[in-house]
Amino acid sequence: MFRKTGVVGRVITLAIAVFVTIAPFYWIFVLSTQDPASSFGEPRFFYHPSFSAFKTVWSDRDFLAATRMSVITGLLTVVISLAVSIPAAYILVKRKVRKRSGLLSWLFIAYLFPDFIIALPLYSVLQNMGLYDTSIGLALAYQGFMAPLAMWLLMAFFKAVPDELGQAAKIDGCSEWATLRRIYLPVVRSGVATVAILVAINVWNEVTIALALTSSNPTLPIVVSSYKGYAALRWDQLSAAILLSVIPVLIFSTFAQKQIVRGLTEGMFN
Fold it and tell me: What does the alpha-carbon distance between residue 52 and residue 187 come to, in Å, rounded to a whole number?
């Protein structure tokens, strides 16, 4: 009896979780495919959907330009974050570093800083460097909190690798860089992939820094918010833009789900 009750409880909990997850997406889809005048009416489950809002948004040059800006910025951010965090995490874990605990504490605090604290001083810096309103400038600004995150995650993966592997490589004459590239990276490649995925998703959804450091080349979340209009909200176009911006993340997360779970499991429990 208690076993059946437990099964029923788990099924109910799972059903509630699925409903809470799917319901917002369904309602956004309804808003994007129905008459804007009906947006505040009763929920409609049966109606004739219109996809004109999707066509309008997809043909918008600003939307396409923002999508391109977000993709390029995300790729640059991932590359820079990995280039910085992989050797840094390796050194912090596998080698003796003076004041290591203080450095780790600073990395943790830096990640917890509010976004605008990073954005405001970087505005002047990027202006003087000619990198304001560019994808490379935005990617460099993101390192203020993406690099600490990547380093913290990668350190867990490097800790899981036995020190004997590195020592054996040194005996065979490998340099520090060769040991990292030939011995450690193949072992922690799932962790590196996991970190790259998490950084990309975080950057894709980021708004505060992008809003402060871009103007004529905004990222996708900023352009999506512009569909709210001035005199009235264009609910159908706003909802369509939201769905179009979310779909790449959903598809990417679906295919990368196993990689993320495997990577985080290996890093936390190995």
Answer: 49
Convert the pLDDT of each residue in 48-68 to its tens digit: 788 888 999 999 999 999 999
In this structure, are 34 and 74 located in the same domain? Answer: no
Q: Looking at the whole model, is its pTM more than 0.85?
A: no
If you write DSSP's letter for every residue of the chain in order, what string do you get? -HHHHHHHHHHHHHHHHHHHHHHHHHHHHHHHHS-GGGTTSS--SS-----HHHHHHHT-HHHHHHHHHHHHHHHHHHHHHHHHHHHHHHHHHHS--TTHHHHHHHHHHHHHS-HHHHHHHHHHHHHHHT-TTSHHHHHHHHHHHHHHHHHHHHHHHHHTS-HHHHHHHHHTT--HHHHIIIIIHHHSHHHHHHHHHHHHHHHHH--HHHHHH-SSS--HHHHHHGGG-SSS--HHHHHHHHHHHHHHHHHHHHHHHHHHHHHHHHHHH-
Number of domains in the chain: 2
With CA atoms as reference, report the closest residue to 185 among 161, 163, 203: 161
The answer to whether residues 151 and 88 touch, using CB atoms and an 8 Å cutoff, is yes
Closest CA to 60 of 217, 223, 225: 223
What is the span of the domain harbouring residue 193? 60-269
Domain containing 81 — which CATH number?
1.10.3720.10
Short-list 171, 189, 199, CA closest to 111: 199
Q: Is the confidence at residue 159, as pLDDT, over 80?
A: yes
What average pLDDT score do residues 247-251 get? 82
Asked if residue 194 and residue 94 are part of one domain, the reply reads yes
d(CA 92, CA 202): 24
